[in-house]
Amino acid sequence: MLRRVRSPPAIREEDIAAYKRDGAVVLRGVLDAGTLALLEAGVEAAYSTRDHRHSIVRTADGTGETIVGQYPSQSSPSLAALVGSGLPGEIAARMMGTQSAQLVLDQIFYKSPGPIAPTPWHQDTPFLRVRGEQMVRVWLCCDPSPADLTVQVVRGSHRWNVVYNTRTMATSPVLSERKDEFEAAQLGDAFLPLVPDIAANKDSFDIMRFDVEPGDALIFQGNMLHGADGRDWYDHARRAFAMLWGGPELRHHRSEGKTFPPPGGEPDGPIPDGDPLRLHPASFPVGWSA
After folding, report:
1. What is the dihedral of CA 74, 77, 81, 83, to 10 degrees?
2. Residue 177 is part of a domain; what is its CATH number?
């Protein structure tokens, strides 16, 4: 991965304590101007040159558009440089309290101006080939993002010790059009419990909301339940790059259905179920190490 000289991220002990307690925290102003430029250039490049590894989400009436692109750092030199700078990986490792961080997944989320489709409440875990506590999302935005359109999380849901299904009890508020191998496929493990209908029962859940500015990093534990509201109209694009990082003891998991493959594939053959990520840096690249 590419490297550049930089200062360590400004992370306070109270930020780490809040992350451990609540499962989510916003780190204010941790990206400098150069990193922000890489972020915006990379997201725009990934949006304009997207390949088969993306999906399109629209509102239930077919309006609005959200592009979700998988592994954009593999095609965007700017996002590759951002990941390779070591900054996101160091942030992840310091929040997890680990000596290293390995990339599990990276994505762009590009919501065009106009009607904004909500993000259905879900858990990332069942879509992934990993299980464990050493897992953190680092979510970076290019634009000011108000609390209703920014990712919201259920406080403390990282401590429920539940892996949910890829499906939910709720009626879907969006239409999804996939362009990848996940279309019409069984996703994850079918025997897992359905995600509760959080949108219809918000008073029953302790939901954390965040106003986020460019330069901030929204951090949340990888097992958290999360989603976002929609709007009838929003005048600005909402662009974000989100990485999911794992610690060295995060375990590999093989589901019965489709899941996101490791970023580096499996060059040494199928990874045994239960193997820690530290044994497979070719499949899950090390983004930062002490």
Report:
1. -20
2. 2.60.120.620
Model confidence pTM above 0.70: yes
- Measuring CA to CA, which residue among 15, 11, 8, 90 is closest to residue 290? 90
Tens-digit pLDDT profile for residues 198-227? 999 999 999 999 999 999 999 999 999 999
> Closest Cα partner for 139 from 7, 74, 43?
43
Residue-wise pLDDT for 228-282, tens only, equals 999 999 999 999 999 999 999 999 999 999 999 999 999 999 999 999 999 999 9
Strands 100-111 and 66-70: antiparallel
- What is the spatial distance between Cα 249 and Cα 98, in angstroms, rounded to a whole number? 9
CA 266 to CA 38: how far, in whole Å?
29
With b meaning 16 or more CB within 10 Å and e meaning fewer, what string describes 46-81?
bbeebeebbbebbbeeeebbbbbbbbbbebbebbbb
Q: By three-state DSSP, how is residue 48 classified?
A: helix
Residue 269: inside a domain: no
Of 175, 69, 64, residue with least CA distance to 111: 64
Does 263 reside within a domain? no
CA 122, CA 141: separation in Å to the nearest integer? Answer: 20
- d(C-alpha 119, C-alpha 228), whole Å: 5
Asked if the structure places residue 121 within a domain, the reply is yes
Backbone angles phi, psi at 157, to 5 degrees: -70, -15
In this predicted structure, what is the pLDDT of residue 108? 97
In one letter, which amino acid is 19?
Y
Nearest to residue 47, comparing CAs of 84, 88, 75?
A: 75
Q: Which residue in the block uniquely carries the two structure tokens 């309290």?
A: 97
% residues pLDDT > 70 (the chain): 95
Q: Which amino acid is at 129?
A: R
- Spatial contact of 53 and 47, defined as CB atoms under 8 Å apart: no
Rounded Cα distance, 107 and 263, in Å:
11
- The answer as to whether 262 is a domain residue is no
Q: Of the candidates 2, 15, 13, 27, which has an alpha carbon nearest to the alpha carbon of residue 210?
A: 27
